[in-house]
Write a structure and sequence with these properties.
The protein has about 475 residues and is mostly helical. The chain has three domains: about 150 residues, MgtE N-terminal domain-like (MgtE N-terminal fold, Alpha Horseshoe), CATH 1.25.60.10; about 100 residues, Roll (CBS-domain), CATH 3.10.580; about 180 residues, Tetracycline Repressor, domain 2, CATH 1.10.357.20. The chain has 23 helices and six strands. It has a four-stranded mixed sheet. A two-stranded antiparallel ribbon has the order 5-6. The radius of gyration is 30 Å and the shape is globular.
Length: about 475
């Protein structure tokens, strides 16, 4: 039974933006009330009732918000093993780790016998290596060998995304023979596709499910198959997989080895999960952290995860202070007054650089930055940043000069035109530096094999502040020397 929030629930959770968000909040409140019952007998009765009434997928998401010690209690009260499998597959890594510690090897064996091979591989990543070896010895040998084979591949490769459970038939088989085999193997997902091989085992094509239903059962598969237009090898990156599936809207992507033998299949659901992982990692790197935490992790753990990324920012800030201190020693009211515009320069240059880097990072992630279009894209981004800096620089100079005129010289003590010129030239120079850094830093990180999303993080932002401020001070010193 699913949860349907009523009007009273809507009032209690006015900030929930989606149906799933409301479900999570309501279920979390129900579970918290059940676990805070006075007697254990009443508590377990309420928990068992909640576990039977609601989807194990919703319970899996809600479990991550519960205290770690009560999550196994919720798991034990699920109605059957199928519900327990869904719960384990959909919950977070911390909850799985807690549950694995509570289960004995026999219970784990029963769970993993029901989990598809491709999902079993990434579930086992939450398990210590010694426990993993014990479990592999217990489960079916064929499944164990498939799991070990998939586990050899890199975590971010097509080999890890694929499943080795799929339907593949020779071209001479008829639709009826293939249908009988499919009927005798209900555990294999029919939606992953039906692939056709030649007698040597090489991939030749695929048969749409519709063709299996509308043609006579004695029709050979070679007559209804279609050619394979897109495929990858096990070492292909997940970015390549996402790019192919997204561009050509394929429902399943075959994975072949160097001899064109079919070794696995990647379906649309696997690609969606890969996209979610990639988006999470990209957002985390743009924020300057690889942080993965739950609501119950300590403040100290969060600090230790974030602090290394901020050390460079701190050092760059100290360098900025040194530059400002040395600049302040220069004589002249105009130079001293220029210090007040440092936040304006660093803010504008940083935002312009961030806009440029974000555009390029998005194009790289979506596969839209090919070798042929790279030069044109770079030139357009550079010109856009320079044009923006020039427009805002000139406009800001006029504003500074106008304000000084309206306030009868209260802003600058010497020459308002000199201050306006310094701000204009400094803002153009700072924005130019931010544009160059924003355009070329993602390309640099991509060239050396580092995720380009780091170029939008605090490390590059701090370097941009130092670079733009230094350029601004040099321009201010040069203009001041020329004018005075």
């Amino acid at each position: 039974m699913d949860i349907h929030p009523n009007e009273e629930d809507e009032k209690n959770f006015p900030q929930a933006e989606s149906q799933t968000g409301r479900i999570d909040d309501l279920l979390k409140e129900k579970l918290e009330r059940a676990f805070h019952k006075q007697t254990s007998k009443v508590r377990l009765h309420d928990i068992a009732k909640i576990a039977c009434e609601h989807s194990p997928i919703d319970l899996a998401y809600a479990a991550s918000h519960l205290p770690p010690n009560v999550r196994p209690v919720l798991y034990e009260n699920l109605p059957n093993r199928e519900a327990k499998v869904k719960f384990i597959v959909n919950t977070d890594s911390d909850t799985r780790l807690i549950l694995f510690r509570q289960m004995d090897d026999l219970e784990l064996k029963k769970i993993f016998e029901r989990v598809p091979t491709d999902e079993a591989v990434w579930l086992l990543e939450d398990m210590p290596e010694r426990r993993f070896r014990r479990l592999i010895e217990l489960i079916d040998s064929k499944k164990a060998s498939r799991i070990k084979e998939l586990k050899k591949h890199d975590r971010k490769s097509a080999g890890r995304l694929m499943t080795s459970e799929f339907f593949a038939f020779t071209m001479d088989m008829t639709i009826g023979e293939a249908a009988n085999y499919i009927r005798d193997n209900p555990r294999i997902d029919f939606t992953k596709g039906i692939f056709i091989l030649n007698h040597a085992g090489e991939l030749q094509g695929y048969v749409p499910a519709r063709n299996m239903m509308i043609n006579p059962s004695n029709t050979p598969l070679r007559q209804v198959m279609r050619p394979i237009l897109h495929k990858v090898n096990p070492d292909s990156t997940r970015e390549e997989v996402i790019d192919l599936v997204e561009r050509y809207k394929v429902s399943s992507l075959p994975v072949v080895d160097i001899d064109n033998y079919l070794v696995g299949v990647i379906d649309h659901e696997d690609v969606v999960e890969a996209m979610e992982d990639l988006a999470d990692e990209t957002i985390a790197r743009m924020a300057g952290t690889n942080e993965k935490f739950t609501s119950h992790d300590s403040i100290l753990k969060r600090f230790l995860t974030r602090a290394p990324w901020l050390v460079v920012t701190l050092l760059a800030g100290l360098l900025n202070v040194g530059v400002m201190s040395s600049f302040q020693k220069q004589e002249g009211g105009t130079l001293t007054f220029a210090l007040f515009f440092v936040p304006l320069i660093t803010g504008m240059s940083g935002n312009i650089g961030l806009q440029c880097s974000t555009v390029l990072i998005r194009l790289m992630a979506m596969g839209g930055l090919s070798l042929g279009s790279r030069r044109e894209t770079i030139i357009k981004e550079l010109l856009s940043g320079l044009f923006t800096g020039a427009i805002f620089g000139v406009g800001c100079g006029f504003v500074v000069y106008g304000l000084d005129y309206l306030t009868s010289g209260a802003i600058a003590t010497t020459s308002p035109s000199a201050v306006a010129l310094i701000v204009t030239a400094g803002l153009i120079g700072g924005c130019t530096a931010g544009t160059l850094l924003g355009v070329f830093s993602p390309l640099f990180f991509h060239r050396i094999g580092v995720d380009p999303a780091i170029s939008a993080g605090p490390i590059v932002t701090a370097f941009n502040d130092f670079l733009s401020m230094t350029i601004y001070f040099l321009i201010a010193w040069g203009v001041s020397a020329l004018v005075f």
